[in-house]
Amino acid sequence: PASWKLMQDVYAVARAQGVAGPNKDGTAVEHEYVAALLLALADPARLPRTALAAAHAFIAGLAPHARIEAATLPREDTSCRFLIVTDKGRPAQALAQIEDEKALAPHSLVLNCSGLPPRIEQLLAAGGEAAPLPPEVMRLLNDSWSAAAAPTRRFSRTQFKQHIDVIAGLPAILRLLSGRSLGRRQSDAAHADESDTSEWLVINESPDGFGIQHLNGRVPPLSIGDAVMLRPREQGKFHICLVRRYGAAPQGAELGVQLLCSEATVLPLPSEDILAMGQQGLLLPRLPAFGNAAGLITAAGALTPQSVITDNQEGTLKYYRLGSRIATS
Description:
Shape: elongated
Radius of gyration: 23 Å
Oligomer: single chain
Helix content: 10-25%
Structural class: alpha+beta
């Protein structure tokens, strides 16, 4: 909070003296402040680690298209607008989340991001080399700054505090699934490397994901977009998920994961490169969150757009071609 207060004070002085805008070399105090606000609103912990530097540069380039303006009443349009705050451990709050009757402090300022979504949509439509970031990252940024920007839940949360094992990363999941059929946890010890496994607590659950908190074992080095397996203790079932949020908390590391599928098959991947032969991927037969299409998790660069994946199901062959990419890490 102190850092944001200091940053706002510096900006307020520059604004009051009329020097917040661009100077002769094009740099501007306001653009730097706006870029910092945009990055904070996007929540860097949700961004893939490999895309952070490119995202930072992308946001800096977008900053001149957002503006800081005086808050006005009545608030007729709250979409893409954020009240700049300094007293709640966050830099800004979506204006749509503030009750209409709540009085704003004198000289309140609003970050207006309405100019950003059209530019992002234009880049997404152009595709190819025109996009400076992977499409899923640009959509995440767009969602952070557009519409009402109110993180309303689509489902009620269940608080049942179930203990689970988390197997982190595609290599560990492939090792586990290719070595056995899933059974009760006591019978898994001979097949799974315990260094791959850590104990977590389910603190929230919805139909399309989980919130979990670390309890015991080594905290795996995870980033946004990584694959994890959630395995409830004393049960034979499992869930393949994607990491969508990663954060530290006083009680322990916390993850927000999106449920992809509760069944999976290890498949050999086709390769014309003899050095890449023997690679495996994880076939997810049905992705409810993506129109029930099949999904495939592989190491980066393991396949090309022309690759054909073959699945032999009890003598019945199924062939898959690559479609759209959901996430990358």
